[in-house]
Amino acid sequence: MVAVVPTSHAQPETEKQRSPKQLKRLQEQKEREMKKMAKRQEKALQKERKAAEKARKEEERERKLEELRLENEGKTPKEMEEEKRLAEEQELFEKEFLETEEKAPQTHVKKSAMDSNRLGGSHMA
Question: The pTM is what?
Fold first, then answer.
């Protein structure tokens, strides 16, 4: 189908010479073109909105990460004192309960049959 594009300098005589079917087709064609343009514009707007939303989410994520970093970076004196106290308590606990005295390993000495606690018959004596 060949698209007929009306120009702005169209002659009024040609408009009168067209049949009602041709006029209807031209009108329908214009409507389709307008519909296509509207759809394209809507898609472009939607694409822009999605890009803006994505950028906003990225900025929000970066802002949260920055806040978290700043929060962990600077601790208040009260928090520092609490950490120091907990570290001291942990150190004292380890010193008192976890550290055991090292015992020297004993060398094994084999018992004779007489020194053994096992019950045996007369053949063992």
Answer: 0.39
